[in-house]
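Entry 14. Two folds queued back to back today. First construct below, sequence then structure tokens.
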Amino acid sequence: MKKIYNPQPEIWSEICKRPTQTFSHVEETVKQIFKEIQQKGDKAIAKYASFFDGVTLENIQVTQEEIEIAKNEVSTELKEAIQLAKSNIEQFHAGQKTDKIVVETTIGVTCWQEKRPIQKVGLYIPGGTAPLFSTVLMLAVPAKLAGCKEIVLCSPSDKNGKINAAILYAADLCGVTKIYKVGGIQAIAGMTFGTETIPRVYKIFGPGNQFVTIAKQFASQNDVAIDMPAGPSELLVYADETAIPSFVASDLLSQAEHGKDSQVILVTTNKNILNDVEEEIYKQLKELPRQEIAQVAINNSKLIFVETEKTALSLINEYSPEHFIVCSKNEDYFVDGIQNAGSIFIGNYTPESAGDYASGTNHTLPTNGYSKSYSGVNLDSFMKAMTFQKISEIGIQNIGKAIEIMAEAEGLQAHKNAVTLRLK
């Protein structure tokens, strides 16, 4: 890992760069696949499933029989773990429900806000080397709690035409309504436009590689909302002398193993911690089955020493990490001062993995600095707020004159007339 000592603020933007780039050929590939799926539907879906996933499927929709078979393949131990995680995620997201807000702004003028579910949502679940059944819980649980009527899930199949059994078990457990064996760009395009088999949705959720990320951006240009801009995983840890180096190293590696384009960063005010964590990283790295992937990510990552906690906090807010762990005797300083982070983990015994799986918070979070302006997925992500107003005869008398004056000042006579007629 690259060691950086006392970087000056003028180079922070360089330090904060992620190891990903947007290549024009990726965009052209996405554009071409979107166009073809819009025009040819299922036929194009089948073509790209064969091309990218090496599989020919007669039926891309998962049957109930396939779900039952998958449920029997999942061990009792894993089922119990998934059920525990689901319960905690449900509790946390159920706590985010809000009541209708009613305000009488003026006598006779009542305004209120209610939240209604998005009727059709699409969930993208990566498969491949790390089938993320945990992401099914993170997306389907709040979708169900919100009251979404149609919850569509797409995930790539293996070369035998099967979706990972744990993904199917979690999807069935959480009330997903339809499951399709479609991955990558073609899955996002299918949910964007709809095909003969895949329904069009109103909003798409879920992580993915660079191709999926760009595909979601294209979806957002075609009348479909997306959860957030999200790319490769990232973690920043702040650690002082109270941190346990082996714990810190394990957290950094837990994100590094996600993918070669992941990035992990340690910020510290203690040089001994910096060196101890580095030593632990290389010791633990040798034992990882995904060592090759983690090693590439580690090569893109940094160990940063700064003199003061104030400087550390400013640098962390500038980086705006997806995940932020703070292990410090002054944890309140960082907890109170952090402005830009997707999810925060506090203390030596709060690994980032807890948020990934079972503490209850959502692991679908903004990356690449987007935590400056985006929230992670939550219950409201699956809902939209609608405003209502009801005005009585007295109410229109109370605000009518102001409306007339304002409409006339903007040169909108019809707006003024709509009030004047009522005042008469």
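Second construct, same run, same settings:
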Amino acid sequence: MGIRQRIFQKENLERYLQKDSQFERTLSAVDLIALGIGAVIGTGIFILPGTVAATKAGPGIILSFVIAAIVCAVAAMCYAEFASVLPIAGSAYSYGNIVYGEMVGWIIGWALVLEYVLAVAAVAVGWAAYFNSFIAGFGLKLPKAITGSFDPAHGTYVNLVAILIVCAIAWIIDEGLKTSVRLNNIIVAVKLAIIVIFLLVGSFYVKPSNWTPFAPFGVSGIFQGAAVVFFAYLGFDAVSSSAAEVKNAKRNMPIGIIGTLVVCTIFYILVSGVLTGMVSYKLLNVDDAVTFALQLVHQNFVAGIVSIGALAGMFTMMVTMIYSSSRLLYSIGRDGLLPSFLGKIDKHHAPKYAMLTVTIVISILGGFIPLGQLANLVNIGTLIAFTFVSFGIILLRRNPKLNQIKGFRVPFYPVLPIVSGLLCLFMMTQLSLETWVASLVWFVLGLIIYFSYGIRHSKMGHAESK
């Protein structure tokens, strides 16, 4: 078989279903929506509306969230069809292997590794900062040496809290999916209740004059804001990683994915509107915009409650993303493109080695390495996966065998999948040159790994040679 035929060789759905049958199907539609909300409503709702309003969109941040939601909505329907027809672990990585071929599947998987790992590391650092501020309110303070990334010139050597929270979440998930999902559902409910408290209290301090001018940076600022707040929506795609552990996946996966997006969009728009109505957008370029706004109107007690909500929000985001990244790494190891021990399932129906590897990598990133602009790479990783999934619906429908499987169908086919893919490409053009250069380095590294290791150890390649 020639190299061109080899890298575009497509995976067999039956092999995936057989391998993934070791997972225990325990998740319901409600669990999926809670996992999705846990991932999507995290740092974004407490920070992004303020910083993006101040620097890019002004009160027009409301429209930025709407635009980002529209892009996500059409992509979400494409994800829902794939998850319904192909109820397997690995999300877009596995879908890519089946409809595009192995090399494209690897590129998607490599993009998702970037998305999941950097997202959790960035949020772990944010969680640690909020935690340190929270305990400072009680007169407690950790030694400076263990409160930041490795930077001896500024007296910091390790962000110990970031490492500990990642390890704690990984341990909770490893103890059992049922237990971790139940805990996640409770914390999601608390988080949403706290956001509602902010909306109710903040609405009394809204001044319509703060919404003028609505778009101080112009229409381009609103679109640039949409590209940035796209980070806030990342996570709904992680729901599809759980397909192999979902009861009645054909029904529940679309409900979980689309339901997540609807609920989260409503909350983002409401928070953005109230926040920019309470305080002039010019003052919101701070790390804790929601808390800052409440303190400005002398609601310090509610501000304290919101800080707890921020910790809860970031906690549930990390639960979903660590869970999803371990399932992604399992899927790549299952196919032999990374060491096969990652694709093993233990007696508790969990990918223990994949979880351990993810935990170590995220802990190192969050604990020792200054992330800075690397967080922007999360967006491009997400958008690449969304683009391939959107256009992949056309290939899915053209496959006679897969098209026979009944499940959710994207409406207005083929227009909507094409529009979804084009919107994702447009959103990528709104990202900075630095983000593109850094992502190019990442994908060159990924191709080196694929051609030096993955293609020689691939289970698909071995099956073909027999």
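Quick look at the second one. The chain has a mean pLDDT of 83. The radius of gyration is 22 Å.
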